[in-house]
Every structure is written in structure tokens, then in C-alpha cells.
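Quick sanity check, Ferrous iron transport protein A:
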Amino acid sequence: MVLSELLKGHVAVIRDVSHPQKDMQQQLLALGFDPGETIQLMTKAPFGQSLQVKVGATLVAIHASDAHHVHLCD
């Protein structure tokens, strides 16, 4: 499963981040999207284009197209 498919309020564990753009890959890792870290979907924008997630203890807004590259443990 990928982050963009996570349901509101659900918690998962990040398996890996594999963004094709190296700068976005580095930015996600710098924001705490590390393998083994817990992540929770807090809210989705009305048309689902952006998500607010809690990564560890940090709230982060992420575009749905970028969230598609954050893989979660099943």
C-alpha cells in the first residue's frame, strides 16, 4: 500500500520512499519519512490533492502525487 491510499485516522509504518525525483526524495527523508517510522493520515483536501499526515510527532502536508511514492508495510 502507498500513503495516498491510507484511510483517514489510520496508522501505518513506512516501508520505504522511492520518489523518482532525487530532490523530492531527499526532502521527504529530511521531513522524517524514514523507513520504520509511524505515519497517520490526519486529513485529506476536498478533492484529495493534498494530505496532512503525522510522521512521528511532526505534522506535514504532502501532495497526493508525492504520497504515491511512500510505501507502507502491509
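Posting the structure with no commentary besides this: The mean pLDDT is 95.
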